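In this supplementary section we document a worked example of the pipeline. Step one takes a protein sequence of length 460 as its only input; no multiple sequence alignment statistics are reported here. Step two produces a three-dimensional model, which step three serialises into structure tokens for compact storage. The input and output of this example are shown verbatim.
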Amino acid sequence: MPKSIKIGVIGAGSATFSLGLVKDICLTASLDGSHVSFMDIDQERLEVVHKLATRYAAELGSRLTFDSTLDREAALDGADFVINTAAVKGHYHARALREMTAKHGYYYGGVSAGPFYQFQLMLDVARDMERICPDAWLIQSGNPVFEGCTLMTRETGIQVCGLCHGHYGVYELAAVTGAAQMDKVWAGEQRITWEAPGFNHNIWLTRFYVDGQDAYPKVDEWIATKGEEYWRTHVATRTHDAQLSRGAVHQYHMYGLFPIGDTVRRGGWWYHTDLATKKRWFGEPWGGPDTELARPVHVEGLEKRLAEMARLIQDPKARVTEVFGSKPTREQQVPIIDGLVNNHEGYFQVNVPNRGALPGIPEDVVVEVPALVNAKGIQPVQVEPLPNKLFLEHILPDWLHMERQLEAFKTGDRSMLLWNVLDSHQTRTYDQALAVLEDIMNFEGHEEMREHFQWPKNWS
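The serialised model returned by step three reads:
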């Protein structure tokens, strides 16, 4: 018998995500009859999502029901699961902030004051859940997953699971290098077994097998025989196409493990000094996803999808299922929910409190590891320790950076933000750092942040 539940979606105006979620629930028979409450602060986007979701479910004959609201508490009331995908300030604010910091000599996000508004939202949602639906699971699907999930785990008693797309880079690695034939993988004729533990956006491929055979030799063979030609001729068609870039392989050769997904984008400062350098390491035509060329393309794609959805709303004859398809997405939210509710067991890549899964990391730090999911809960799998060099140069610095961000947020100590700016490899002088931080604090829309962060007593 299907089990009906309530799912509250915070930031549901992210229409592509919300429609994918609806699709997956509609196609999960064991959740038939469930209810989804869409919440956002943008009424227009909410209406689009609500109408399309209703039409999509009707076309599939699903008993899924919906409501939409501007009131977060209403979305949380009675919820069994809460999915938070909200971004507070958005792409245009981020672009304006980058343009301002560029005037101080910082290239494309070379300095920031941290995700204050995202932390604030995440903590507000988690605290509301403690009060309204304390037994619900929070599935955090908006960044920053590593820092935000650690914050919510420490400051509240709710159950938190962070999710990200990045680990799917394993399948791109397998396909491009010929380690596996993806049509056979999707058909179940080949099996990829892998582990990529670490922190969100900082995961490394420690196990990589195809049909029980180590697939790393195939990667090495591809690099030796086809890598240079690929880097010389490959032109990305997606802004986030960097999994097989020269920069990714360079990191693999440094540490002996392949960086997966968004890990590739991090690397070190030397990959990110200017556009020409980014193109060298991450390829044409954009130099990876984090450049002044790539980000407008990414935002334009989002706007086109929103426009297409708005067009569908105006055409009552159009079939939503023909536009969005009727096959499940590769998102993990619904399969994890189904596993917890209906004991449909599976392994997933999750971000949860460590509890001994990744050696060398405290229990209350959220790690990204494989986990077994069933009616007993989300149970992280203990993995092998990461190599000491990688731990010292990537994992430990990332952990300490996270701790500084959370301490700054909790204490409101503006001097900790200054330290972070001074620590940037793009900072040349103390006066430069002080000036850019002051402009960040005084930036339009940063009024709450400016009030929150104060200089220590007797600061001079």
